[in-house]
Structure formats: C-alpha cells, structure tokens
Design goal:
The chain has helices spanning about 20-35, 35-45, 50-60, 80-90, 95-110, 115-125, 235-275, 280-310, 315-340, 350-360, 365-380, and strands at about 130-135, 150-155, 160-170, 175-185, 185-195, 200-205, 215-225, 230-235. By secondary structure, it is of the alpha+beta class. The protein folds into three domains: about 1-125, Acyl-CoA dehydrogenase/oxidase, N-terminal domain (Butyryl-Coa Dehydrogenase, subunit A, domain 1, Orthogonal Bundle), CATH 1.10.540.10; about 130-235, Butyryl-CoA Dehydrogenase, subunit A, domain 2; about 240-380, Butyryl-CoA Dehydrogenase, subunit A, domain 3 (Up-down Bundle). A hairpin with a 2-residue loop joins β2 (about 150-155) and β3 (about 160-170). The longest helix is centred in the middle third of the chain and has 37 residues, at about 235-275. Bound molecules: flavin-adenine dinucleotide. The site of flavin-adenine dinucleotide (FAD) has 22 residues, from β1, β3, α10 and α11.
Length: about 375
C-alpha cells in the first residue's frame, strides 16, 4: 500500500519548513535512528533513565535548542524544537520527555531569572551538566494548582521550604528543580539544587506510560534555599508556571504527533513482517487517522510559529496539545485494533505509544482542562479552571 511507505503523507510536509528547520529535523531523525532499539525497549520495560543519552542529546544541541547563544543555547526556533520532538516521539527516544521538561525549566530561567541565575545555571543546562525538573504537582494539587500546600517561609537570608511534589519527570535524576510553593501572599517559584539541605527524593513512580524518565516524588523538609534562588517576583510564582507551561504544551503536541506517526510506522512493520494484505475497511480507518494527524500537525506548527513570533497564544497551545495527544491515543488504539495481539509486541512500539499517549492526555494539564481553557477564551472568567 503506497500510502504506508516512508516519506509519504505520514510525514512532515517538507515545503512548510525552512532549510535550517529541516536540518534540525534530519539531525533528530539520525540521532534517534542511531539508538539501539533494545535500549529503547529496556528504558520502558525497566523504567530506566539513561543520563548518557540525555548528555549526548545536549551535545548535539537539542538541550537548549530554542535559546539564544549567550548562555550556550543553540539559537534555533521553536518550530525546529518541535520537529525534533516529533522525531523523538515517533521513534520513542527514551530521554524525550526529560529533554522537553529541561527546556521548559530553562525557559522559566530565561524569562524570569536574574543575571546571576542565568550565568550560574543556563550554560550548564545547555551542555547537559545540569538536568532540570519542574516541580508543581502535589498529592492534593494536580489540575487545581491553587490547592498547593508546599510552603516557603523567609528565615534570615534563606527561604525554608516544606511539603512534597509528586509525578515529577526526571525527579530522581535531576540536578536542579524549579519548585512552586505557596507563600503568605500568593505563590513563589524557586531554583532548588538537588544538594540543598532538606531536599530528598521520595518514591519512584512505576508509571503506566512515559516510563524511563526517573519520575518521582520530591520531599522538602525544612529545605534551605538561599534568597538569591527566588525565581521571578515573590508572590507571583503562578505567572512563572503558566508562562512556561504554555510553551511546554506545544512541545507535548509535537511529541504526540510523533507518537501518532510512530503508531502508523508500527502498523506498516507488522503488515510487512506478517505479509498481511490490508483490507478496504483498514484503509478507511487509516485515511481518517491521517486527516486528523494532518489537522493536529497544522495546529501544532501554527502554535510553534506563534511562539516564534513572540506571541503568547495559550489557547492555540491548548488546542494543539489536546488535538495531538487525542489523535495519538486514537491512532495507537486503532492500530492495535487493526493488527490484533501481534501489534502489542514491544518491538513495534505501538503498545508503548498507546501507554505514552494516555499519559500525554493527562500531563501538563489534562485534556479536559485544556477544553475549559479554550472555552474560556470566548466565555471569559465564567469558566472556572
Ligand atoms: C507522565 C506524567 C509526567 C508528569 N510530570 C510532571 C512534572 O514533571 N511536573 C509536575 O509538576 N507534574 C507532572 N505530572 C503531573 C500532571 O501535571 C498532573 O497529573 C496533571 O496536572 C493532572 O493532575 P492529577 O493527575 O492530580 O489529576 P486531577 O487534577 O485530580 O484530575 C482528575 C480528573 O478530574 C478532571 N478535573 C480536574 N479538575 C477539573 C475541573 N475543574 N473541571 C473538570 N474536570 C476536572 C481532570 O481533567 C481529570 O480527568 C506528570 C503526570 C504524568 C502522567
């Protein structure tokens, strides 16, 4: 079946991207293709994070791709970063989610950090010497971040943090954390180093999907954070969180596009391996999926272009995240339905994508919450999120 060959409609539309953007796409594809397929399976099966691979990705320039050169950034645009994430998602590159969060954290420092904070952390982040994690979610505060209980109190020249954060991507392996707390008059964000007194790594989560990212709980017991590590304005931590998450959602949209395409790659491989002829009913299903993937792709890259234009289009970001993760979930589901149990062999990556896409619908704001954010765009504050 021609439509299931490589480099067909089940791929990015090359005419929509600049030569520089396509260079990043090719680099990402080559990087992903060089990873041992067994390692990809092991990272998921054993829930194992590979720091060497993360560092290798940073050495290729992926770790700080959408940032200026001043602090070691690679100077690419957000569209290029999305192309990389799409390729990584398509091939289930094990460090993909950690890399996405790492960039999200740097984004917070670029936007809200002091000159000293930028000088201290960003170059090492770009090189991969420092791996960053984003610590917002708590046992009683997922979608409703206002319910956050982790606290920060000023004591002399330090803030003292108490509480815990859960489901933190890279939590057990990160070197710094962007941590959000409640304070007397609002919220605050801090850059917390792993070695700061009072920080410990709690339980490691054996996730359904998005495994292999060192996802864990982080506990703060009278954790001492120097005043100089306050990120952004005291009392306005929510601003830091929301601003970074809007970009993060576009990254996830790109990853999810990759999952959708990766599930179709898996389908093609099963059909080839088993020498199965496709049926007409299969082509209808695949045709419909391709239309939806293309629609999600348009939204995702429009959202990325809007970031590159310096706009803050949170609604577009929410739409892209929602549409791409939903179509990734649907594609993996349909493909498993089309090929049956054969498709659940780990080597085809389809069942992994099925689990990863489910996680994608939940994290950085569930898709239900995205719908509410989108509706709020026209209904205003009558929609409570
Ligand atoms: C793989 C993975 C990685 C993650 N990584 C990180 C990370 O690095 N850092 C971090 O801080 N967090 C992380 N998280 C946590 C993630 O952001 C939360 O899971 C997410 O915000 C949802 O919170 P919750 O799971 O507590 O669900 P809840 O908020 O308890 O929601 C449960 C259900 O209720 C619905 N719901 C909630 N509120 C409303 C409402 N007002 N109206 C209608 N429906 C509602 C939700 O849509 C959902 O269906 C990660 C999660 C996953 C799965």
């Amino acid at each position: 079946m021609d439509s299931l060959k490589e480099q067909t409609i089940n791929d990015i539309n090359y005419e929509l991207f600049s030569a520089q953007q396509l260079k990043w796409h090719t680099l990402a594809k080559n990087f992903a293709n060089q990873i041992d397929p067994d390692l990809i399976i092991r990272s998921d099966r054993d829930n194992q994070f590979y720091r060497d691979l993360f560092n290798a990705a940073c050495h290729k320039g992926f770790g700080a791709l959408p940032f200026e050169n001043t602090y070691g950034g690679t100077g690419g645009d957000y569209v290029s970063f999305c192309l990389v994430n799409e390729e990584f998602g398509r091939r289930c590159v094990p460090i993909m989610s950690s890399l996405g969060v790492h960039v999200l954290c740097q984004e917070s420092i670029y936007k809200f950090g002091t000159a000293d904070q930028k000088a201290k952390y960003l170059s090492d982040c770009a090189k991969g010497n420092i791996l960053a994690a984003f610590a917002l979610t708590e046992p009683g505060a997922g979608s409703d971040t206002a319910a956050m209980e982790t606290s920060a109190k000023l004591a002399g020249n330090n803030y003292v943090l108490n509480g815990s954060k859960i489901f933190i991507t890279s939590g057990s392996v990160a070197d710094i954390f962007i941590v959000f707390t409640r304070v007397e008059d609002g919220t605050a964000a801090f850059i917390v180093e792993r070695d700061f007194k009072g920080l410990s790594i709690g339980q490691k989560f054996d996730m359904l999907g998005m495994r292999g990212y060192g996802t864990s709980e982080i506990v703060f017991s009278d954790c001492v954070v120097p005043k100089a590590n306050l990120l952004g304005e005291f009392g306005k931590g929510r601003k830091v969180a929301l601003s970074s998450l809007a970009k993060g959602r576009v990254t996830i949209a790109a990853q999810a596009l990759g999952w959708a395409r990766g599930a179709l790659d898996g389908l093609r491989k099963v059909l080839q391996d088993d020498k199965i002829e496709h049926s007409d009913s299969q082509t209808y299903i695949i045709g419909n999926l391709l239309i939806d993937i293309e629609a999600a792709s348009s939204l995702t890259y429009e959202a990325a272009r809007s970031i590159d234009r310096g706009e803050n289009n949170t609604t577009l970001a929410a739409m892209a995240k929602l549409k791409s993760t939903d179509i990734a979930m649907k594609t993996a589901d349909c493909v498993l339905g089309l090929v049956g149990i054969e498709g659940s062999k780990p080597k085809y990556l389809i069942e992994r994508i099925f689990r990863d896409a489910k996680a994608g619908q939940i994290y950085e704001g569930t898709n239900q919450i995205q719908r509410m954010l989108i509706a709020r765009d026209i209904l205003g504050d009558t929609v409570k999120v």
